[in-house]
Amino acid sequence: MTMIDLKSSVFTLTGTPKSQYILTILNSPQATPQSTTYYSGGFSIGKELSFTLESVHTLALETGKRIDVKENASFIINGTHTTINSAGSEYGGQSKFRFSSNTWKKQISSLNLSSGARAEFKNAFFFIHDGTITMQKDSTLAIQTDVIRFQRSLSNNGGEINLKGNTYIVGSPIDTKPAGTGQKNTAAFFTSIDGKVAIEGNLYNGGTTPIDSSQNPIFPAFDPPAMGGGSIVLKGGSMQVSGNIISQSGGSSSNEGGLQNSNIELYGSSLKAQNLQNQANSLLLFGAYDNKMGTFEGNIQNNGNVLVDLGGIKLDGDYQLVLGTISGITSDKIELKNGNTGFSKAILDFKNDEWSGVVKLQIDQNAINAFKQGLNEGERGILESFGDEIFIFEGATTSSLSQDVSTFKDKLKTGLLDSSYLFIETMKSHSTILDLRPHTLTFDILGGGIWGGGNGGIGGIGMRWDDETLFEIGSLEMSFWGAYAYGNFNQSLPSFNLLGISEFKNQSHNLALNAYTNFIFQESETSLSVGYFASFLASSRKTQTPDTFEILTSRYSHHYIRANLAQGYRFSFSQFFTKPYFSLNQALHLIPSFSEGDSSYAYSSQKYCTYDLSAMVGIEMGYEISNLYKIYANVSYEGMIYNSSDFVLFTSSHTPIAFKTPFIHRVGVDFGGYVGINEAFGVNFEGNFKYMGKDFYYLGGNIALKYTFSSF
């Protein structure tokens, strides 16, 4: 017997596309013919290459290693289908292909097929995969062995699977302690989405797997059986089994976890077999996918549970889900989910208390149309983006859907529009000029928190230069400020009935540039503030219905240009002053176009540009204890006078949803003080509170180091 030990090496093949490579294992003269065990550290086959491994008795892929077959490449292993003395190899005995894993160390082997790739394993007694298999669109997995064992997980995303041999989808136990001293029973998972599966032989879902039967009593081959459950989930596509299907519980009594139940779930897919035995505690589910119900062709013997789920169907009619004889599916063994709502009725058809394989659905289209007509255009667009299948889910009534749509619209606005305004408003709060000292350079650290309609905050740095010019009739104060802050905003949203946004997150980088001038003539003060503020945002929202869950992301920016003209009058009383003022504030908002993607649940926006005019009244107050110590405060109210245009989002079907400007009223309170270290150095501390409407509040502050240049 020969051993090739490349446990630590990955066999990597690159070359000219369309090239073919064959590696044939030649045994030494002293070895038993066709008895080589290949211990592999993995394979990587480059794009559009073909690789064949010939005459290997056993391929043993070591724990945590992987086989990667790139786009349009092929990987073929041709075994020997021979039996050797198991004393000569830990895997010896019957010829096999084995993918090993160590769950305690989280070393899981894998087979990964890229788009158009092909992997073929043939001419052996066993194919044993104790890791993960991932197949991309148009890939192919072909296995021809006496026994095929999937013991961890297989995910097929639009590929084709051809299996020749009795196939077992049975969970291998996971290690809960090192060195196999503690184990837990599990289930194996076989998932196929829009894929095609053909099995020539019987299919066993859960139970116990057969093992290498050529055991040497003194040095047995390493081939522990898998004992656990199985989970087959088919969404679209098809599966054909030439023999029978047995779905049953499994697990070792000496392991943790107890028996693992098994399930077969057919969502809009077709399953065909001679017979299907759904044994005790196993589940057979018929569900919807792409507006089609799953079906089974063949005979069913049931001793477990059956579930018919109409969620996702939007056309009424009689659905024949089983073509064949049925036994054991009585009214106490089958359950109907969804279909009976304020807009539809559904029943299971029985004959002599035995299910006939038919479910009947009646949809009240008049009720649906009447409900839609009662919504405005934007609300109707939101509802229609979820499809008419939403009316079939349990709990669908005019009341529940009206509430969901209204809440959804409100939270959509909060997440995509209001949050960008929030960051702009928080930066504006820190631009308030309350303590201006001529010839002074200021470095400040700013930050604060948002709460109410959501939670978040900002943190950043800023720099400001203050100066003053004196005239015969008065003086001109000037201030130039720039800042950067990182912001975040989160919403954990309230529960919903059928459709909603369960979570919203927003991260932002925020910039501010502001110039302030204040002309003082005796007690009269006229100020002009011109600024540019920008927020660059990355958002993420989770949208959910009873059968869908999507995370939608977008990147966009909000640019804000303002020009505020204020008039105030200062009243001085020794060390104390107060200044009531009135301000007209003009602003231009620009949000360039953005999109959340191509999902039917995604929203997009064309370029948004709007002009705002608002009025502000307020009062400033200050108390100068000495030249080195000062406290001050400002209270203001701002109300919107005019907004030129609404913000509009579009559904995937281009239905517009219009939103008003988020903040109609704003109330601000600013307070702070100055502590001088000497005539040149001092420390400024400020606090900012702002109510921004819609239950949004901001509380922030900054601490600043000031230096006054005496040479001016």
UniProtKB/TrEMBL annotation:
InterPro entries: Autotransporte_beta_dom_sf (IPR036709). SUPFAM superfamilies: Autotransporter. It comes from the Bacteria. This is Autotransporter domain-containing protein.
